[in-house]
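TA notes, week 10

Several of you asked for a full example with nothing omitted. So below is the full record: C-alpha cells for the whole chain, then the designed sequence directly under it. When grading your own attempts, check the secondary structure regions first.
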C-alpha cells in the first residue's frame, strides 16, 4: 500500500490487529472509518506526531488487520478500542475518530465508559437512521458481490470512494485505499463490512448523548454527500457544550482533502 505498513501486532480474541505509534508527547489515538484504513490518516498522523504521541491502528476487517469471515461490525470495534487502550496502558488520552471511527469513539465513550481527555469526531456516523441504497443492496446480495471478477470489483470500489470526496483524489490516494480491498480476501472483506453495517449500532446511544462527559469538537466537510453537513448541527445540539467547525470545499473524505486545516483545528482544541 505505497509502503504504508503498521509494525506492531495485537491479538484480540485470536484475531490479529495491526497498529503503530509515532511521535512523543501526550497520548493521542486516531481511529479511521469505512471503507478506509489507517493509510487515510497518514497526513494527520505526520502533522500531529510533531506534538503528540500518536497511536493508530486498522480496525478489525480493515487495512492490515484480520479479514477473516467474522464480526467486523460497529458492535465489536468499540470493544477492540477498549482493549487497545488497556494494552497501551493509557489513561484519558486525546482521541480523534473519522466516519465509523467517530462512531467507534462515541460507542466506546458512552457505552463502555471509555475515558478521554478531549474528543474529536470528523464527519461521524452518529445519528440514526443511516445506510445508503448501496449498503442495503449489498446486505441483500453480499455473496453475489463477493464473487465479482476482480476488475469489476476494483471499478466499483474506486467509483464508490470517489463519491466521498468533493475534490479530485490523487491516483496514489486511490491506490492506497484500494490495496487492502484487493485479492480474494480483500474483496470478500469489503462486502462483508458493508453487509454488517447497521444503524442498530447507533440506535444504542441515540438517547445517551447527555452522558458525554468530555469536551467534544465536531469537524465536518461542508460538501459531504455521504452524510450531509446539516447533521453536524443536529449532532452539536445533542452534545452539550460541543464545538462545531465546518470545512469549506471538502466532502466526507475531508481527512484527505484538508488535513492541515484539520490538524490546526485539532491542536487548537486540545491546547485551549
Amino acid at each position: 500500500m505505497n509502503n504504508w505498513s503498521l509494525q506492531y501486532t495485537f491479538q484480540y480474541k485470536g484475531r490479529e490487529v495491526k497498529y503503530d505509534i509515532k511521535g512523543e508527547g501526550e497520548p493521542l489515538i486516531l481511529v479511521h472509518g469505512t471503507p478506509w484504513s489507517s493509510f487515510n490518516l497518514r497526513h494527520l498522523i505526520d502533522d500531529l506526531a510533531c506534538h503528540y504521541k500518536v497511536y493508530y491502528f486498522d480496525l478489525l476487517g480493515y487495512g492490515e488487520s484480520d479479514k477473516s469471515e467474522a464480526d467486523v461490525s460497529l458492535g465489536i470495534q468499540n470493544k477492540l478500542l477498549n482493549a487497545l487502550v488497556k494494552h497501551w496502558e493509557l489513561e484519558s488520552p486525546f482521541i480523534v475518530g473519522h466516519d465509523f471511527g467517530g462512531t467507534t469513539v462515541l460507542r466506546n465513550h458512552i457505552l463502555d465508559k471509555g475515558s478521554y481527555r478531549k474528543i474529536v469526531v470528523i464527519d461521524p456516523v452518529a445519528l440514526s437512521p443511516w445506510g445508503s441504497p448501496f449498503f442495503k443492496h449489498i446486505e441483500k446480495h453480499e455473496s453475489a458481490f463477493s464473487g465479482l471478477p476482480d476488475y469489476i470489483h476494483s471499478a466499483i470500489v474506486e467509483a464508490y470512494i470517489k463519491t466521498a470526496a468533493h475534490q479530485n483524489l490523487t491516483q496514489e490516494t486511490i491506490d492506497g485505499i484500494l490495496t487492502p480491498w484487493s485479492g480474494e480476501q480483500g474483496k470478500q472483506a469489503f462486502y462483508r463490512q458493508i453487509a454488517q453495517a447497521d444503524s442498530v449500532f447507533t440506535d444504542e446511544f441515540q438517547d445517551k448523548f447527555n452522558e458525554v462527559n468530555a469536551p467534544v469538537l465536531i469537524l465536518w466537510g461542508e460538501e459531504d454527500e455521504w452524510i450531509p453537513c446539516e447533521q453536524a448541527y443536529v449532532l452539536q445540539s445533542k452534545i452539550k457544550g460541543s464545538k462545531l467547525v465546518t470545512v469549506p470545499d471538502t466532502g466526507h473524505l475531508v481527512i484527505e482533502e484538508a488535513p492541515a486545516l484539520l490538524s490546526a483545528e485539532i491542536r487548537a482544541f486540545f491546547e485551549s
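The CA atoms of residues 15 and 264 lie 35 Å apart. Use that as a sanity check on your answer.
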